Amino acid sequence: MRAYHQNFRENLRLALDTLRTHKFRSFLTILGVLIGTTTVIAVASIFAGLDRQVSDAAKDFGTNTLAIFKFTPGFHFRLSREERLRKPLTYEDAVAIKEACPSVESVAVENFLWWGPPPLLKYKGKEVVDYDLSGATAEDFRVTNTNLADGRFFTAVDDAHRRNVAVIGPDIVKRLFDHEDAIGKIIMIGSNAFEVIGTAAPRKAFPGDNSINRWVKIPYLTFKKIYPNERENFILAMAYEGRMAEAKEEISNVLRHRRHVKPAEPDSFGISSAEAFIQQFRQIIGTVVLVTVVISSIGLLVGGIGVMNIMLVSVTERTREIGVRKAIGARRRDITWQFLLEAMTLTGAGGVLGILVGAGISLLIRTLSSFPSSVPLWSVAVGFIIAVSIGLFFGLWPAMKASRLDPIVALRYE
Amino acid sequence: MSSRTLTAPLQQTMTPKDGVIIRTENLWKTYDMGAVQVHALCDVSFDIERGEYVAIMGPSGSGKSTLMNLIGCLDTPTQGKYWLNGRLVSELSDDELAYIRNKEIGFVFQTFNLLSRATALHNVELPLIYSGTPAAERLERAREALRKVELGDRMHHKPNELSGGQRQRVAIARALVNEPSIILADEPTGNLDSATGDEIMNLFDRLHQAGNTIVLVTHEHDIAARAHRIIHIRDGKVARDERVK
Description:
The complex is a heterodimer of chains A (about 425) and B (about 240).
Chain A: H1 2-21, H2 23-61, E1 65-69, H3 81-85, H4 91-100, E2 104-112, E3 121-123, E4 126-128, E5 132-136, H5 140-143, E6 148-151, H6 156-160, E7 165-168, H7 170-176, E8 186-189, E9 192-200, E10 215-219, H8 220-226, E11 233-239, H9 244-258, E12 270-273, H10 274-317, H11 319-327, H12 332-368, H13 377-403, H14 407-412
Parallel strand pairs in A: 5-10, 7-9
Antiparallel strand pairs in A: 1-11, 1-12, 2-5, 2-11, 3-4, 3-8, 6-9, 7-10, 8-9
Chain B: E1 20-33, E2 36-49, E3 53-57, H1 64-71, E4 79-84, E5 87-88, H2 94-104, E6 105-108, H3 120-130, H4 135-148, H5 164-176, E7 182-186, H6 194-209, E8 213-218, H7 221-224, E9 229-234, E10 237-243
Parallel strand pairs in B: 3-8, 3-9, 6-7, 7-8
Antiparallel strand pairs in B: 1-2, 1-4, 4-5, 9-10
Helix pairs in contact in B: 3-4, 3-5, 4-5, 5-6
């Protein structure tokens, strides 16, 4: 064992020495491994950032809140025709949930514009075109975990009287009320005048969602009065702490009954939660990561072949040295280890450089944008291990070749 | 791992009498060249005793290189037996031979064969690295060997910073460092001018006087004449075995 340890140190010294002697050649050789590792690190850091964003946004949305729609809320690549043609959820569905589900603390309903752009939003000549308009019941702010920045939320009374009052998101405040106090001001939504009674605090967005703070909410019945034909309702239910699963079960039972879903049929509606959303997101990310790994492993494979090539050159160049080493007592495995370690040092160095470059890219992204990319520790470990393994795998054949050289022939090699 | 102690029992069926360090018995080396068989060595037998200074002489093609490879445990005979220091080495595996080379044989080559990127000291350390000697002891023994060849002040020089004679002395230090049974020198002065060659031969004389067994392979008469016994090889056979001193 001691002999082995000494050999390791000697071989490592030798390997680093070779690296130093052939700096440029070594660099070119490990370029493939370097790029491969860089890709792994950079992609991992981006996905770690995305994941962070998603969990932050989900937490901000509320971990006890269930979102219910006629199809599952969340990411969709394509909706089926059946899903699109399902009948809308109704206000009465929400009332029934509130009454029949003991695990549900609070229920809110939102009605929104199903098709087309929202009506022009105006204040003193300033206009906003891209925003989300919805009619919400008074419970909505509590259920969606919305915080107030200023003023007040509208109440059940405002709703019942179909008052023209509005609560606006922080981005709308920024656009319409530069240095003004928004509370009490009259804004125009299309041809209807609304009084701003509250402004909301900003909330964390899901990746790619830049409309999270760009919304106007008016009372549910006011919305109905203006847009009587909008029939799609979005129901939000807040479960009591720790009773999410029960709440989901209860809601499902109520809706299946009310929508006449036969026992063998699947739900004709979707219930989602922040947790489910995170899971869905991670599933998608998992696929993307897999694709990235496959692509970068092609790069690593090419890099590995380069390493094998240069190791074969190295073995040939040092035939005489191998002969000398064998003559003075190196065994086959001593020679094998010498060249294996050299190959692993080579690709390991590529891995370290790749990790540094990848971390640099991650840092650059974080500095130049607000995106919270961060290099996860596991990706550093994986990157390094992959790099070293490539040296091991592609160095094996050249090393075996070196170890099998006949010392007599090797000593005579010119 | 089997480490440095050999697991296979070393056959000692016919232990040569004490004092005999090399015994070859009917050594044959045959190369199969397809249609014909070439006998590089035919039925070579001789003993070399501890402390002898022997030259193996012969023109090129005589088989002396083949014989040197066999004595140096770089190769195994096609037929026959070879004992080195009491061990029958003619039937050992590659790794066992590596072990024997490390422990029992100190090679000195015509072209020095030093590692060009390593210092003199590190070159001399190398056999000790392969024998698993601890670092501190290794360093001390390597220094000692270099001092023996009067290169105590050149330890940290690389081969290209040394003269030919100095390089060969580093190689001799490397051969000595593991305290081998024999020093096997293959045309050690072949790449040196005659004055430097003389210096090296004087060094061999001193090593011999200090009790080392030296086997010199050469085709030059005046080099062979420094030895005490000359084994002449011709056409793969021992043509003459003479004591000259």
